[in-house]
Amino acid sequence: IIYLIFRSEKKLSSIYHRIIFGMSSADILTSLAIVLTTLPMPSDLPCEDNPWEGRAKGNIQTCEAQGFIIMTGVLVIGLYNAMLCVYY
Predict the structure, then answer these.
(1) CA distances from 4 to 1, 17, 50, 76, 86 (A)
(2) Rounded to 5 degrees, what are φ and ψ at 35?
(3) Is the pLDDT of residue 40 over 80?
(4) H/E segment holding residue 80
(5) Contacts of 19 (CB under 8 A, 6+ apart)
(6) In 3D, which of 38, 81, 35 has the Cα closest to residue 56?
(7) Which of 37, 19, 16 is nearest to 27 (CA)?
(8) Which pLDDT belongs to residue 9?
(9) What are the distances in angstroms from CA 64 to CA 24, 51, 74?
């Protein structure tokens, strides 16, 4: 979608393109944070405190950053969706 927006003649000059661009960008960042799954989790957690089977390679800061990106992304996507509803 982002590629199509930048290939169009209007680019980001239309309100619709700006809303869709913002929503797509937030969706990409949120999806990337979700794809990382357990990798940002602290690697020094004992097994009984860590019920996840996946690999944990991170620390507290990477885990908090992933959580922040996911929560902020979900909020931003919802707000852009609301803007799109108001636009129409």
Answers:
(1) 5, 10, 43, 21, 23
(2) -65, -30
(3) yes
(4) helix 60-87
(5) 80, 83, 84, 87
(6) 38
(7) 19
(8) 86
(9) 23, 18, 15
> Does an H or E element contain 31, and which?
helix 15-35
State the residue for tokens 């809303």: 19
Amino acid found at 54: G
Residues 6+ apart with CB under 8 A from 4: none
What is the distance of C-alpha 19 from the center of its chain? 16
Q: What is the predicted pLDDT for the residue at 67?
A: 93
Cβ partners under 8 Å of residue 52, min gap 6: 38, 41
